[in-house]
């Protein structure tokens, strides 16, 4: 499972590290402290938080255009038959990609995984950081 440092969560959600710390203090996010090291937040916890927040806030109203590479966190993966539907929250942008189930499995995509949506025309490709690959 992917664990994220506070600074990584802050960067993904476009907020400050202090905001993430406040959310943890308020119980809105759950942080873990491994045996050695800094506190981390499970990626699945961040994905759940993003889904709940998006449902409360509604769609983002933004006047900027996205670049062709959108770093984000996987919030949902639906596998059915040969197809997988992958949902990524990249800042204020929600990106959905349909791919083969095999590709989603090879990338190890699950809620909480870090991923980049690469947009080219009408195609969205998904990449994961090399450290997440087995």
Automatic annotation (TrEMBL):
UniProt xrefs under InterPro entries: HTH_17, Mo/tungstate-bd_C_term_dom, Mop_domain, SinI_DNA-bd, Transp-assoc_OB_typ1
GO molecular function, one term: DNA binding
PROSITE patterns, per database record: MOP (PS51866)
Cross-referenced Pfam families: HTH_17, TOBE
Keywords (A to Z) from UniProt: Molybdenum
GO BP, sorted A to Z: molybdate ion transport
UniProt-annotated stretches for the region Disordered: 49-69
Gene3D superfamilies (UniProt xref): 1.10.1660.10, 2.40.50.100
Keyword presence, NADP: no
Domain (Mop): residue spans on this chain: 63-128
Protein name: Helix-turn-helix domain-containing protein
Source taxonomy: Bacteria, Bacillati, Actinomycetota, Actinomycetes, Micrococcales
């Amino acid at each position: 499972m992917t664990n994220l440092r506070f600074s990584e969560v802050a960067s993904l959600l476009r907020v400050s590290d202090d905001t993430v710390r406040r959310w943890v203090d308020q119980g809105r996010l759950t942080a873990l402290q491994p045996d050695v090291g800094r506190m981390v937040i499970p990626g699945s916890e961040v994905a759940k938080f993003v889904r709940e927040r998006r449902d409360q806030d509604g769609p983002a109203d933004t006047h900027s255009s996205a670049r062709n590479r959108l770093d984000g966190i996987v919030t949902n993966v639906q596998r059915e038959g040969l197809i997988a539907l992958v949902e990524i929250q990249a800042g204020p942008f929600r990106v959905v990609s349909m791919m083969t189930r095999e590709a989603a499995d090879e990338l190890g995509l699950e809620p909480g995984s870090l991923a980049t949506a690469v947009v080219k025309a009408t195609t969205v490709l998904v990449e994961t950081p090399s450290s997440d690959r087995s």
